[in-house]
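Annotated sample (chain length 110).
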Amino acid sequence: MGPAVATAGPTLYNKVCKVYVLYMSETVTLTDARTRLGNLVAKSHHGGEIITITQHGTPVAAIVPYEVLEYFRRREDEADVALAERILAQDDDLVPHDQVRKLLGMDEDS
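Output written by the structure step:
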């Protein structure tokens, strides 16, 4: 997966993820992942594969192309900013940071 996909809109991205899950995914045990980590990372990085790691049959982690991680980080940051903006727009009783520090007994330099 190249950068063009990572910056594409959510609709295209969702379609791409479905293709990865259907055609370009692998599931390995944690034990197998330990012995094949370099190979699995290369498959993810160069081949765009999503590798699911299981422990006792339960999915516990994944190796994904870095662009996928960056996409989700951007989305999470956008959601956090939107939430903060909604809260700030609704609340007239905000307490300034320095006042909170003073109320908690924290000095200015800590």
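Annotation: The longest strand covers residues 50-55.
Annotation: Residues 66-90 form the longest helix (25 residues).
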